[in-house]
Design brief:
Layout lengths: L2 H16 L5 H14 L4 H7 L3 H19 L9 H16 L5 H12 L7 H11 L8 H16 L10
Helix pairs in contact: 1-2, 1-5, 2-3, 2-4, 3-4, 5-6, 5-8, 6-7, 6-8, 7-8
């Protein structure tokens, strides 16, 4: 894994964790992967050294500093920037085959409804899956549009740390 890919993965894990999508031990695993890939800062080493038992207690304090040292953003819980970061992380997961297009749109729609402008089209596509039997579109057509939306979201570069 390249250092850029490791930074993206760590940023994604941080966003997913801060919004309650994954557990703290997943963040520690991403920190370990980042170290193996060549990213190295004092706070990242401490974060990667957490045991599973310590992760639930320590990630909250260690993660913001580790991200800051790497020039990555930490998104406060409930922030719109954090919600957008989660949508981008889920898009990358779908493109990597970890989620189906249908699962991806369902999670986005369930989390944000039609209220997040960045993911509005994905919420609409989730609705389209529900009415396929009544229209003239196929699953493959909707899947293709979901993949295109996911690529658009995933192409967004990492944002530098700062106000979220």
């Amino acid at each position: 894994m390249s250092t850029q890919a490791a930074a993206i993965a760590l940023q994604d894990h941080a966003a997913l964790w801060s919004m309650g999508e994954i557990g703290a031990s997943d963040v520690v695993n991403a920190a370990c992967d980042a170290l193996v890939a060549g990213l190295d800062t004092p706070a990242l080493r401490i974060l990667a050294a957490c045991t599973r038992a310590e992760a639930d207690y320590d990630v909250h304090d260690l993660l913001p500093e580790a991200l800051d040292e790497l020039g990555l953003a930490f998104y406060p819980v409930g922030s719109e920037a954090g919600q957008e970061a989660v949508a981008r992380a889920l898009a990358r997961r779908m493109l990597a085959g970890e989620l189906t297009p249908r699962e991806f749109t369902f999670r986005i729609h369930q989390r944000h409804g039609h209220g997040l402008p960045l993911t509005e089209r994905l919420a609409e596509l989730d609705d389209e899956y529900d009415i396929l039997e009544y229209g003239d579109r196929t699953v493959d057509q909707v899947d293709a549009e979901v993949v295109a939306e996911a690529r658009r979201l995933a192409a967004h570069p990492l944002q530098p740390s700062g106000p979220a």
